[in-house]
Design goal:
single chain, 416 residues, mainly beta, four-stranded antiparallel beta sheet, 2 helices, 32 strands
Length: 416
């Protein structure tokens, strides 16, 4: 065989290897299902349980479905809602009524409050429900709707139940409130004019992240302030975190998606076309999804590199993106539809540089700490570590191989 033929074979081998590598590294968003919004108005706000077995969309007519469509119902209005981690219970707030239903829509129980319900939270296993109305009343309910405790305090804007331990975090116009399920006060922040709108709590229940206007803050579960920083110039529209809160992602009117580590350091900013209305984060933050006014779903890895993107039919709604724990499924609501997307291809991503290499910050003393009995809060586990990002590959697309195989056949014929 002469040198020319050897050279041609070498070139073809390189083309074939490149095709294989390109196929392995590619990722796209596939549409598993698409639900048209009802005539009453678009979906607004979505939730998904960790394994993506149940999807909730709010708005003028709430909607619930399983990913495979076996569970599929809706039409009921809900002003506020929360979903248990196992997807078996949904708490709904409508006017002055609290209702808890199962994933098929069957009602467990319903109770009334003195005012319009403004915020609700549910424990991971659905055994406790906390509700708050616009008159400053907070109620704690047991699994069967029995009243456990009641108090009156600053009107709640939003609240969240910790994934572990007995902790409920409430954001008000006058600072944060930390309670247990008996509504016993653990700690409060008496700042006036507080703008906290978003709450995330780590899987071990030890770290609380809040965001509002242009600030993000980190607290321990006893109220100790770790840091508070101004991250954006214009208002934040949405915020989500990895399960251990080592990666905090915010987005908003700055037209940026911003990733912050557990110490308050900004690691990257991704510029979008318009306001970014919604973000979602997988458990290990290997998949970060965001979108907004430019109708684009941006899918990024932990380092801020774009994995893939996809256009929706209309503007993506505020707070209307959710990502499954493993990052393989993404739910998005725009002004016309609710989408169930699956990532096809490789989502392996490097870690956020330096995210776990820095020493702990010196904690800032809490404001107005409240002493409680040690038994009122469950023991916490050590802070979780981010697992190694998983890498999966889609089946090889044979179209990638056509050019190289064709060239190989032609060369073989010439050799003979």
């Amino acid at each position: 065989m002469n040198r020319g033929l050897w050279f041609r074979l070498l070139v073809i081998s390189g083309i074939l290897a490149g095709c294989l590598a390109g196929a392995a590294g590619a990722a796209t968003l596939g549409t598993d299902w698409k639900e048209r919004a009802p005539e009453e108005g678009p979906y607004l706000g979505v939730m998904i349980n960790p394994d993506a077995s149940l999807v909730y969309a709010g708005g003028n007519a709430m909607f619930i479905r399983s990913w495979d469509g076996e569970i599929h119902w809706g039409g009921r209005f809900a002003r506020v809602a929360a979903l248990s981690n196992d997807g078996k219970r949904v708490v709904l707030g409508v006017e002055n009524r609290i209702s808890v239903v199962d994933n098929t829509g069957a009602e467990y129980w319903s109770r009334t409050m003195d005012g319009y319900v403004k915020a609700v939270a549910i424990s991971p296993d659905g055994s406790f429900v906390i509700s708050a109305d616009d008159k400053g009343n907070y109620n704690s309910w047991g699994k069967d709707g029995e009243l456990i405790a009641r108090l009156n305090n600053q009107t709640a804007n939003t609240m969240a139940y910790a994934p572990a331990g007995d902790l409920v975090v409430v954001a008000t116009d006058n600072g944060l409130r930390f309670y247990n399920h008996n509504l016993e006060l653990i700690w409060y922040d008496d700042r006036t004019g507080s703008r906290d709108e978003f709450i995330a709590i780590s899987r071990d229940g030890f770290t609380v992240i809040t965001a509002g206007y242009n600030q993000v803050a980190s607290y321990n579960r006893d109220g100790t302030l770790n840091w508070r920083k101004e991250i954006t110039t214009d208002p934040i529209i949405d915020m989500h975190c990895s399960s251990d809160c080592s990666v905090i992602v915010i987005a908003g009117q700055d037209r940026e998606i911003v990733a912050i580590d557990r110490y308050g350091t900004v690691h990257w900013r991704y510029k979008a076309g318009e306001w970014v209305n919604a973000v979602g984060v997988s458990d290990d933050a290997s998949v970060i999804a965001a979108g907004g006014i430019d109708r684009t779903v941006y899918v990024l890895d932990r380092s801020g590199k774009l994995i893939t993107e996809k256009k929706t039919d209309a503007i993506i709604q505020p707070g209307s993106i959710a990502v499954s724990g493993d990052g393989r499924r993404i739910v998005v609501a725009d002004q016309m539809n609710l989408y169930g997307f699956s990532i096809i291809g490789d989502t392996g991503a490097p870690d956020v540089p330096g995210a776990s290499a820095r020493a702990l910050l010196n904690p800032v003393p809490a404001t107005n700490p409240v002493t409680m009995a040690a038994s009122s809060i469950a023991p916490t586990m050590p802070p979780a570590t981010v697992p190694e990002p998983h890498t999966t590959y889609s089946p090889l697309n044979p179209l990638f191989l056509v050019p190289a195989l064709g060239a190989a056949v032609l060369l073989s014929r010439r050799m003979h």
